[in-house]
Recover the amino acids of this structure.
């Protein structure tokens, strides 16, 4: 209850004073985590998963555009931790702030729901929130590198692709997890804690083995994702996908397991292809399952109401919610 009250405070106009530094701090912390693992493509350093984009999009979906100043401040803190204040920093700041805002506007335009309980919501997050909106930050960021002669023209597309996919992965992997955590209410349903524990133990054994083995065994994580989605929907599938993606990124940056002996471009392509397909599988499969379950509940509820109406009609009574008919009419 205290957490809910805290979130409601952030929704109020006066909460902007609290929301801005809070969002900035979360963005900065996510940025520092993302910078722990880096890859080099054509001389440019990038992160395979950029968590701040996921944090920014989630904050905007939860609290609205009032979070934009906090996102801009957080982006500035991350940039300033890497370089000195220069005119090009302003361009990067604009791009890193505009991309999540663009994602928010596109998602709200199509009626996106934060519970991701419909297939259309999963598709919207993938194609609008991640793949389309993150074109802004990638184009602005790499374009500035090109204009300031810090990047050759021949390296534009590989670096642009790495930047774009890294930002998109942040949205696909981090945003659903944060939206899910926001929706959690206490007390938790622990009726299937044994199965959840078994799933977690399997993930802790199977995922490190698949991402560190010299034999290409990455495909082994997909049955795990399907199990998590079928039994625990978004919570299970996205946590499993995030855990797997982090370990795969660690293996790729260490050049071990299935990424051993590959060139930097090949490592980037293999890692991002794996992370992308895994995130899509987890997100869309859980959305389909949730939608089907909601549809089944609606049908069952309608059938139950129909049975009640028929029982009342058979007994000569008025159906529930309707006044009895006047005999004189």
């Amino acid at each position: 209850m205290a957490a809910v009250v805290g979130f409601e405070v952030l929704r109020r106009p006066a909460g902007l004073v609290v929301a801005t530094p809070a969002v900035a701090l979360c963005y900065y912390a996510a940025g520092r985590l993302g910078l722990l693992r880096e890859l080099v493509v054509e001389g440019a350093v990038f992160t395979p998963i950029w968590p701040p984009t996921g944090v920014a999009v989630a904050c905007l979906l939860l609290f609205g555009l009032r979070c934009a100043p906090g996102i801009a401040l957080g982006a500035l803190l991350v940039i300033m931790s890497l370089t000195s204040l220069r005119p090009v920093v302003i361009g990067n700041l604009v791009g890193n702030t505009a991309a999540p805002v663009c994602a928010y506007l596109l998602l709200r335009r199509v009626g996106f729901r934060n519970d991701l309980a419909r297939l259309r919501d999963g598709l919207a997050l993938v194609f609008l929130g991640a793949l389309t909106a993150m074109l802004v930050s990638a184009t602005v960021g790499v374009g500035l590198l090109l204009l300031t002669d810090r990047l050759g023209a021949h390296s534009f597309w590989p670096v642009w692709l790495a930047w774009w996919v890294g930002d998109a992965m942040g949205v696909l992997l981090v945003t659903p997890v944060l939206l899910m955590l926001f929706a959690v209410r206490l007390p938790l349903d622990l009726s299937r804690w044994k199965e959840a524990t078994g799933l977690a133990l399997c993930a802790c054994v199977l995922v490190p083995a698949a991402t560190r083995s010299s034999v290409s065994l990455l495909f082994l994580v997909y049955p795990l994702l399907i199990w998590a989605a079928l039994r625990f929907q978004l919570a299970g599938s996205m946590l499993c996908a995030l855990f797997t993606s982090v370990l795969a990124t660690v293996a790729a940056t260490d050049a071990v397991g299935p990424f051993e002996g590959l060139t930097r471009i090949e490592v980037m392509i293999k890692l991002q292809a794996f992370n992308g397909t895994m995130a899509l599988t987890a997100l869309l499969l859980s959305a389909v399952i949730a939608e089907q379950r909601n549809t089944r509940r609606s049908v069952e509820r309608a059938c139950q109401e129909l049975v009640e109406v028929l029982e009342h009609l058979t007994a000569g009574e008025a159906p529930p919610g309707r006044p009895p008919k006047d005999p004189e009419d």
